[in-house]
Each structure stands twice: as C-alpha cells, then as structure tokens.
Amino acid sequence: MIKTDILIIGAGPTGLFTVFEAGLLKLKCHLIDALPQPGGQCAEIYPKKPIYDIPAFPEVLAGDLVDNLMEQIKPFEPGFTLGERADTIEKLDDGTFVVTTNKGTKHHAPVVAIAGGLGSFEPRKPLIENLGHYEDKGVRYMIKDPEFYRDKKVVIAGGGDSALDWSIFLADVAEEVTLVHRRNEFRGALDSVDKVKELKDLGKINLITPAEIVQLEGKNFLEAVLIRKSNEAKEEFWLPVDEFIPLFGLSPKLGPIADWGLEIEKNAIKVDNSLDYQTNIPGIYAIGDVNTYPGKLKLILCGFHEATLMCQSAYQRIFPDKKYVMKYTTVGGVTGFDGSKKEAPKAVVKAIN
Known about the structure:
Layout: E1 2-3, E2 6-9, H1 13-24, E3 29-33, H2 40-44, E4 50-51, E5 60-61, H3 62-73, E6 79-82, E7 86-91, E8 97-101, E9 106-109, E10 111-114, E11 120-123, E12 153-157, H4 161-170, E13 176-180, H5 190-201, E14 206-208, E15 211-217, E16 224-229, E17 236-240, E18 243-246, E19 250-253, E20 264-265, E21 268-270, E22 284-286, E23 291-292, H6 300-318, E24 334-335, E25 341-342
Parallel strand pairs: 1-9, 2-3, 2-10, 3-6, 10-22, 12-13, 12-18, 13-14, 21-23
Antiparallel strand pairs: 4-5, 7-8, 8-9, 11-19, 15-16, 16-17, 20-21, 24-25
Helix pairs in contact: 1-3, 1-6, 4-5
C-alpha cells in the first residue's frame, strides 16, 4: 500500500502545483491519474496550444507549462500512479482514507485532494455514418502535434474557440486549411473570428458556412469529404482532404468519483470556498475545474490559488497540535525531503511547533 500525506487525484496543472505548495509545508504528495503521463489536458489534448493567462508568461505552450511545473516540484519528489483510475474510496475509523484504483493499487492518506479537472473526456462526434472507419486513418478529434499536419490538406469542423484557434494556427503549417461550420455565426472569441475572416480574405483559409460534413470517402485512408451547404438547394460537393478534424468539444464525466458520496452539482463537486475548498466529507478537498462554488471561474490560475489555501488546511488537519507562521523570503532554494538543498523558487515556509 502506498502511503503519503496528501493523495492527489489528477495530475494536471492544479494537481502538480499542489505538490509545490504542500512541499513547502513539508507534506509529501502522491498523484493518481488515468492518463499515462502527468499534465492532464495540457499534455494529452493540446500540448502545443498557447496559453495567455498564466502570470509572468505573456504566452506559454500548454506542454511547456507542464514541463515547468514538473521542474518546480522536482525537489519534493512526488510519487505517481499513472495509467490508473481512482475507483473507490474508504474512510477508516481513524479518519484517514484508502483509495483503490481500477488496477487494484491501494493508496493511504489522511487527506485526499481531488484535482481531476473536468473529469474524463469523450469527444462529441458528428453523426456521419462511416466516421468510425476512418478514426486514426484521417479522422482525429484532437490536435497533439501541429507538425503532424505539415503540408497536408486539413478540414476542420466546428464553431468554437478550438476550431477557430487551430484553423488560425494551422494556416501557417498545413498545405490547405478549410473551416466548415453549420452557421454563419461563431461561438468563439471575437478577435479569433476576425482573424479567421482576415486569413480567408488573404486566401490562407477556406471558410465554408453555413455547411456541414455529411459523408467521408477513401479506400484505406480518408481521401475526401462531402460538404453540404445549408442553402435552399442543399448544394453538395466533394473536397479532397488528408485529415478531417471535428472539433465539437468534449463531454466531461466525473467517472467513479461521482459515486463517492460527495455533493455534486452540474457534474462538479460542491466545496466550501469561504476557507479551504473542502467537500461535504471532512478530509476530502476538491480544487481546480472539478469543483464548484458561487462565483467559480474555471481557470488554471484559480486552481493554483485553491491549491494554496487547501494545503494550509491540510497541514492543520494532519498536524492539529502544531502552529506555523508562513514567511516568504529571498532564500537561494528549498530543502528537499532528503535534506539536500535544491535550486527552486525563492520561497520558504517554516512550521513552528
């Protein structure tokens, strides 16, 4: 059985930053994630997508953000159980918890922090009869490496931020980019809409609206898509294509966590945000996109803030008889669990008995 101070369910940015804040308090962390590597959505779904709202980073790629977080927490030597889903939780008589994964790995901790983002995801797929036949053979539901599309003919379907952003990005990568949307109006950011229209005028993006993809064609791999215009004539035409990317969003699911007796509201875990983001079960916290409370904003920045306050509460739960004074200084590093000095962010927290 794996024992730790704080068991973190979810190894996305919020879960990873929790390790740092807990480490400053000399609390050991272990993370569980169903994905085979840390980073959550940032690593699995859009590692090459730029993020603009991380303090001190005017722009940072999602994958680079994960790499930086991993470097930041290295001195605190967190443990990882990857490629396994947290399945069941048991509260013991002493108030601690045992969490078991779908592969039977057991974890024991006095505090559980659920940082599972929006949960597990399934892509929303368009209703095209032979769509499944071409999955991974010309049909993909997410873009992990834009270079994969270098010099290819790409068709993107969708009207939200992802469809707009990737159309803009791939305009300088692919041989040809076509964006197809069912309506003339888009749901994404106005500046992205303007940029797409500007690239259309420059001949760098083919914009086809209102229209939809209704059929796919190809012997072994996708070769063409049938586009149907939403006009009175229902005009149809075939377009040669190497890759078709329907970006209609992802359907989030809490998975087994929804059966843990936690108070759930609209597929998110209700927490007390007046103090520490604790759930209705003492000792279980929920931070990041997985939680909900009045005024909640689903931003990585907010997850970092919630993780910081949660760790303070977790420390007092684990050491109820200890008092501490938190001080930030310009020290040259932090002390790892092995007692060695590590180069790290210049902050220190001292726990005083």
